[in-house]
From TrEMBL, chain A:
The keyword Nucleus appears for this protein: yes
Localization, UniProt: Nucleus
Record SMART domains: POP4 (SM00538)
Gene Ontology biological process: rRNA processing; tRNA 5'-leader removal
Record-level Gene Ontology MF annotations: ribonuclease P RNA binding
Organism: Saccharomycodes ludwigii
Family that this chain belongs to: Belongs to the eukaryotic/archaeal RNase P protein component 1 family.
Cellular component annotations (GO), alphabetically ordered: nucleus; ribonuclease MRP complex; ribonuclease P complex
The protein, known as: Ribonuclease P protein subunit
TrEMBL record, chain B:
Annotated stretches, region: Disordered: 223-248
Gene3D superfamilies listed in its UniProt record: Metal-dependent hydrolases
UniProt cross-references to PANTHER family, sorted A to Z: RIBONUCLEASE P PROTEIN SUBUNIT P30, RIBONUCLEASE P SUBUNIT P30
Protein name: Uncharacterized protein
Major localisation: nucleus
Lineage, opening ranks: Eukaryota, Fungi, Dikarya, Ascomycota, Saccharomycotina
GO biological process, one term: tRNA processing
Native species: Saccharomycodes ludwigii
Membrane spanning stretches: none
Location in or out of the cell: Nucleus
InterPro entries on file: Pol/histidinol_Pase-like, RNase_P_p30
Length: 309, 338
């Protein structure tokens, strides 16, 4: 099909002069019947993908995985692989953190380092531990700025339309709670208030990934930040949304001072983990139902202890 | 922790006359002396008479009571809650009434007097909603149609000696109700009161209570465990509890109108042991602290959360806390200065 058809040439020749070169100029490119551009492109794309993705992205050499990547039909297997990778990553992070702890403790015993200097510890680790130091990332401070303050807080405030104290009076609580049940919690700062499991109590951190039955958090340590997996079962999490400063219309100094005290306030919500055990993608379309609450008895006990202490 | 979820709210004699609160004050102070911590004021109505003013009046009274008797308002020794019990005769009307008690009475109010009442949406609903079935038909209706999302408690008419002697309660209906998370109430005040034809009423009272205890016995609990497939994880833990304590779906409360009709933990145990045949001391005390707290939790979660999933504020049970103020239902915490 890629040849020029003879009848076209004859027709053109009949209506024009003698010189065939002139006639050939008249043939527009879009009149020629050639293989379409899309097919050509797709061929090159496939080649590129094969070159790029084959070994570098996956890091696994087998041919079956390559094909599945190209077709995008074998979604289950791909997803399974990503799960494996996540699990590997978490385990590696935990191992390296453990090793780093050991190294630092040795140095502290010798007297070269002190307990309080986080910066010096990291410097020391960079020198002594250079191969695996990268795996200690992500660091807590960087994530708190990047993920939490710059991305998640503006997102949730825009979703709920909370800005300052006066905006609260216009809002309806039940609508806000319903919106929060659908919201995305990757990147949020959660804190455990009440638990069945005492070893988990009081831990707070930035959520890296929300799984079906657990939150994977990055927690701030005294010397080294660690990744922790906290189960939703039997825990109550707290969300704290700091309010913006109210624009001051009042002129006297006393009133301004009073407002400054109020400006540090924040809105508090809490998630009951037992009723939250769904995947984050499933949660958007799901209808929540209240159940028999005999299993939430720890919620009451926790409150009693906190008030007495 | 001791709970009493049934202290009667005094009735008006006429529509114009004011309620006399002096008796109620005395009752609540004796309860604090007996080391009760959570107490609910009970407002009994027929479905035709559900009024909007009563809940506002109750909230006002609770606030004034805290101010009168406790110096530190943020940690009162006794915590007061509101409760409504609806006499149920015709099950077809009930859906509307329960809605009215839960939410709708607020909406009616907001149309009358603007945004000031609108701001107190969560404050203007009752903490606990209870139902008193008067027929067998209405009891059957509860076990089939209603959930723990609408109703927390079921009581029976123990007080009235002239009520028709009780219909025969079945294991099946009671276990069906308790599987949903709705608890059943036993009152001990009619045993102590001496109004009217006391001997007849006491005999009837003992008979009724014994029937209810029989229905919620060990066998019914076992049935629940086998039938419920949805909550498999919790059942394994519950099985251990049920083998020790038979009655997981009962609570005991006073139902008192006088300060003389209230008893301590030991006093309640002696009443239940001698007249109603509950000999296990731990079993009885569980009905006084653990189970009523679960009822409170269920009610408060309905009021303060979205389907028991996300809650406003830290603590569901406590109304007033240190450093937390309530703006339009949102809990706002002020940070401490460092």
């Amino acid at each position: 099909m890629d040849k020029i058809q003879p009848f076209v040439k004859d027709y053109l020749l009949s209506s024009s002069g003698k010189d065939p070169s002139v006639i050939e100029q008249r043939l527009y490119e879009n009149l020629k019947l050639l293989p379409t551009k899309k097919e050509k492109k797709s061929k090159t794309n496939r080649k590129n993908i094969r070159k790029k993705t084959g070994n570098k992205l996956l890091g696994l050499g087998s041919k079956k995985i390559k094909k599945s990547l190209l077709k995008q039909e074998n979604y289950k297997k791909l997803n399974h692989d990503s799960r494996k990778r996540l699990r590997q990553y978490i385990i590696e992070c935990k191992q390296t953190a453990r090793i780093a702890h050991g190294l630092i403790n040795k140095e502290i015993k010798r007297g070269n380092l002190t307990d309080n200097d986080k910066g010096e510890c990291h410097k020391y680790l960079k020198e002594a531990f250079s191969e695996n130091y990268i795996r200690l990332f992500p660091k807590y401070c960087a994530l708190k700025k990047g993920l939490y303050e710059n991305l998640w807080l503006p997102y949730i405030k825009e979703l709920l339309r909370i800005t300052d104290k006066r905006s609260l009076e216009k809002l309806n609580v039940n609508v806000c709670l319903q919106k929060l049940s659908i919201a995305d919690y990757n990147g949020s700062y959660l804190k455990v208030i009440k638990t069945k499991n005492r070893s988990v109590s009081g831990i707070g951190g930035i959520v890296l990934w929300e799984a079906q039955k657990s939150f994977i958090m990055l927690c701030e340590g005294k010397l080294i930040d660690e990744i922790k997996i906290i189960p939703k079962d039997g825990t109550v999490f707290e969300i704290c949304l700091p309010l913006d400063k109210t624009p001051s219309n009042k002129h006297t100094e006393q009133e301004r001072n009073e407002e400054d005290v109020d400006d540090n306030s924040s809105v508090v919500f809490s998630i009951i983990g037992d009723r939250f055990k769904y995947r984050s993608s499933d949660r958007s379309g799901r209808k929540f139902k209240s159940k028999r609450c005999d299993d939430l008895f720890y919620y009451l006990l926790g409150s009693e202890n906190s008030t007495s202490s | 922790m001791l709970c009493d979820l049934n202290v009667l709210w005094p009735k008006k004699e006429n529509s114009s006359s004011k309620i006399d609160f002096s008796e109620l004050d005395k009752l609540l102070m004796t309860l604090t002396e007996l080391k009760y911590t959570h107490v609910a004021l009970n407002y009994v109505v027929t479905p035709e008479n559900v009024s909007d003013d009563e809940i506002i009046q109750m909230n006002d009274y609770i606030n004034s009571f805290y101010h009168k008797y406790f110096k530190d308002i943020t940690i009162p020794k006794i915590k007061l809650y509101t409760r409504i019990t609806i006499m149920m005769e015709d099950p077809s009307k009930m859906q509307n009434v329960i809605k009215k008690a839960g939410t709708a009475c607020v909406n009616n109010k907001s149309t009358h007097s603007g945004p000031s009442t609108k701001s107190n949406i969560t404050n203007n609903t009752f903490d606990i909603i209870a139902i008193m079935p008067l027929n067998e038909k209405s009891l059957h209706n509860i076990s089939t149609n209603l959930d723990c999302s609408t109703v927390d408690l079921i009581t029976f008419d123990y007080n009235n000696p002239y009520a028709p002697s009780y219909y025969f309660l079945k294991h099946k209906t009671i276990s069906g109700i308790s599987a949903k998370g709705i608890k059943i109430e036993i009152i001990y005040a009619p045993m102590l009161s001496s109004t009217g034809n006391s001997t007849v009423s006491r005999v009837k009272y003992i008979n009724n209570v014994k029937q209810i205890i029989r229905c919620s016995g060990r066998n019914s609990c076992k049935n629940i465990n086998h039938n419920n497939t949805s909550t498999n994880n919790t059942n394994d833990k519950n099985k251990k509890n049920t083998s020790n304590n038979k009655k997981n779906n009962l609570i005991i409360s006073s139902g008192a109108a006088n300060s003389l009709q209230v008893r301590n933990k030991l006093g309640v145990y002696s009443i239940m042991m001698q007249f109603n045949g509950m000999k296990n001391y731990k079993g009885v005390t569980k009905l006084l602290d653990d189970n009523p707290l679960l009822v409170l939790l269920n009610g408060r979660l309905r009021k303060k959360s979205y389907q028991q999933c996300i809650v406003t504020g830290d603590d569901v049970i406590a109304d007033t806390q240190i450093g937390i103020s309530d703006i339009n239902g949102f809990a706002v915490r002020q940070k401490e200065h460092e």
